[in-house]
Structures are given as structure tokens and as C-alpha cells.
Amino acid sequence: MRVDVEDLVVTYGEVTALDRLSFSLEGGKIYGLLGRNGSGKTTLLSVLAAFRKESSGTVRIDGEPVFENEGLTSRVSLIRDAGETTDLGTAEDALYFAEWLRPHWDADYARSLMDLFGLTRKMSVKGMSKGMRSALGVVIGLAGRAPLTMFDESYLGMDPPARYAFYDALLADYMEHPRTIILSTHLIEEVSSLFEEVVIIGRGRLVVHEETQTLLSRGTAVTGPAERVDAFTDGLTVLGGTSLGSTKSAMVYGEIDEARRGRAAEAGLELGPIAMQDLFIHLTGDAR
Ligand SMILES: Nc1ncnc2c1ncn2[C@@H]1O[C@H](COP(=O)(O)OP(=O)(O)OP(=O)(O)O)[C@@H](O)[C@H]1O
């Protein structure tokens, strides 16, 4: 599903959570939504899911306004950090409700995901651990197959094996049933390989919206003898670096053109990729 956000403002009393935010997602991809604490990610996803009304600006999904649009309710799913369920009833009740709400619900798939995460239908939601609740939310989010499915740090409560099982399941199911998926996360390195595009927000504003590969191509690790690395990176934007003996590795932000690449090779320097997390820290460092 296509998502268009234009000049979106959301305020809570004196606090401006989203500040004239604009971007468009063409849909049919897995998107990463990144931002530091309080940057507005949850607020944005809540508006996209029609849980919250915009103060001003417009939000459209497949060209339709979102708020109080009943036609979109079954097609848009937001799984929040504590899962999508209330405290009441059992896992079975939660699955039953999700099946009722989601026209694309796949009951067999839900069953296999419950097994994967070690959940049983008779468990009371109230008695579940944080990780189990998150896993139940993930089951509901995946098996619902909503054309726009959003996970708001929904899997943070899960332990690493469960999280990796979620990433694998998500990718496999997305390949079979392509849809628009937005993942908000702080675990950037764990999930960044899933993202086709990344949206980074800071202080309620857009910092970057880019294809993942394009964003990653902006960062380069320059490694070699310390004094040659320093000479090569002089005048470039250096994000940070590490040294081991006389060898140094510096992280550079910005395009390195062919001529410079040639000079690096002549100087015996190695050029390699840097992690998305490092780019994120650089891009959002003072954007709180
Ligand atoms: N219900 C609320 N009432 C008042 N202020 C709120 C409310 N919800 C969010 N805010 C404020 O809006 C801003 C954006 O918060 P939001 O939860 O959307 O950010 P976030 O990027 O999801 O943060 P985090 O990564 O910490 O979960 C913050 O300044 C926050 O304090």
C-alpha cells in the first residue's frame, strides 16, 4: 500500500511530536523506521494506524485519508511494543479476535508461528512474560497479512533466538505474500539487512529517506597505516575511528569519487563498508 505523509504535525499539549513531516512510500517493500528516543516514531505509526488524529497536515494510504476511515481498518495493522492484545482472556481469544478483524488471516500459519515461539492457545495473556506477549503480537501481525503491517519495536521483549526466528519468518512470509511492512527499531544491526528503504526521523522531522544501499554507500571505512589514513581523510567528514598499533580505520561519510579511490589504492589503503548503526549515530547525533 502506498503511504503519503504531507506536512504532518502532531502535538501533545505543548509538545510537538511531529513537525511538518513529509515523505512518501510507494509500498510493496520492507521499510525501516529509525529515530532516537522521543523522535516521533510511535506517534507517526499511531497516526498511520488511525489510533491518533493528526493536528494538521495530511496522511493518505493508497490515496485515502486515514482517520475514521473504516474501510482501512482491516487493511492496516500496527503491532505495538507490548503486542496487540489486551490483558483479558487467553492467547486463543486474541487469535480469534485477530481472525475476525483480518480478512487475509492464515490460521495454519498462526498455528505454526505459535509453535515456533513456544506459545499455546490456552495461555492467559495476563500470565505471559513480556517476551511471550511480544511473540503473540508478532504472530498476530504476521498471520494477519494486512496489506500495510507495522511493527513498533514489537519484538524488543523477545530474546535473541526468538527475534531471529521472527526476522526469518517475516522475510520468508513477505517473499511469499508481498505487502508493505514498516519496522521501527533500535536494534539496527539486527534488522537492517531486511530493509529495502530506510526512513530516519529526528525531533519529529525527516532526516533521511533513502534506499538502504544508497544510504550505506555514503559511508566508507578507510583502513591502513595511521599517517596515510589521516592524510587521505584530511578534509573529509570523519565519523570516528579505531586504531590497532600503527594501523588505523576511519569511518568517512560522503561520496568517495573514482579519483580518490585511485589515490587510496596507490597509498595501499583499503576501502570497505561501514555499519548502518554508525551512519544512524552520525545522522541523528544532534537531532533530538
Ligand atoms: N501521550 C503523550 N502525551 C504527551 N506527550 C507525548 C505522548 N506520547 C508521546 N509524547 C511525546 O512526543 C514525542 C515523541 O514521542 P514518540 O513516543 O512518538 O517517540 P518515539 O520515537 O516512538 O520514542 P521511543 O524510541 O523512545 O519509543 C516525545 O517528546 C514524547 O515525550
From TrEMBL:
InterPro entries: AAA+_ATPase, ABC_transporter-like_ATP-bd, ABC_transporter-like_CS, ABC_Transporter_VariousFunc, P-loop_NTPase. CDD domains: ABC_DR_subfamily_A (cd03230). Pfam families: ABC_tran. Transmembrane segments: none annotated. Keywords: ATP-binding, Nucleotide-binding, Transport. Residues 3-228 form the ABC transporter domain. One of its GO terms (molecular function) is ATP binding. The keyword Transferase does not apply. PANTHER family: ABC TRANSPORTER ATP-BINDING PROTEIN ALBC-RELATED. This is ATP-binding cassette domain-containing protein.
